[in-house]
Structure formats: C-alpha cells, structure tokens
Design a protein that fits this description.
Length: 113
C-alpha cells in the first residue's frame, strides 16, 4: 500500500540502510580502516537485497508528460513558424554532427540560402 508520493516504510528503510552504508564506507576510507569499509560494503549489499525484497521500484509515480503551450514563433534553425501541435512536440533524436536538412522548397519559402 503506497502512501501517496512519500513511499512505503520498507522502501525508506532500504534507502536509509544503503545511505548509512555509503556514509560509513566513506568514513572508513578516510580512516584507512579496510575492515570497516568491507563491512559497509556488505551493509550496502544487504540494503540492495532489502530494496529488491520490498519491491522499491513499485513506489515510482509517473506523472503525465508536461507540454508547454507556446505561441507560434519562428525557429532559429529552420526559419519557419513553429506551433504547439502534438506532432511537433514529440522528441526528436539527433546524432552529433548531423544537422537537420532543409529541402529546396523550404529554403525558397524562408529566404535561406
């Protein structure tokens, strides 16, 4: 039973256990206490097992996708009017070094050369 956005007590316990283990491991590294470091590592692994056991990922709340409703404007890249139509709000993946191409008709329409 999830309690809104705050998560369940088991999830908090698992997260707290892992957090304490990382803090203890950091102190152990500073003090050069290797037995304490490996104990903290074991505690972190135990916290991971607790997290899996309580199904911590079921606490995730997915919000609806946020879309800004902007007035139509001229794009600095394509030099044409952009609207907030849903087809234009879909994310586009561009590879590094690959610029979007503009057809000859679009260049003539916008005056770009």
């Amino acid at each position: 039973m999830a309690t809104g956005r705050s998560g369940r007590p088991g999830s908090w316990a698992a997260s707290g256990l892992i957090l304490v283990a990382f803090a203890l491991g950091g102190v152990a590294l500073i003090l050069h206490q290797w037995w304490l470091f490996w104990t903290a590592t074991g505690i972190a692994v135990a916290g991971g097992i607790v997290a899996i056991a309580v199904d911590i990922f079921s606490d995730v709340v997915l919000d609806p996708i946020h879309t800004d409703h902007a007035e139509p404007h001229v794009s600095p890249i394509r030099h044409r009017v952009k609207t907030d139509a849903p087809s234009e709000l879909e994310p586009k993946v561009l590879l590094l070094g690959h610029a979007p191409s503009i057809s000859r008709d679009e260049r003539e329409d916008t005056g770009a050369s």
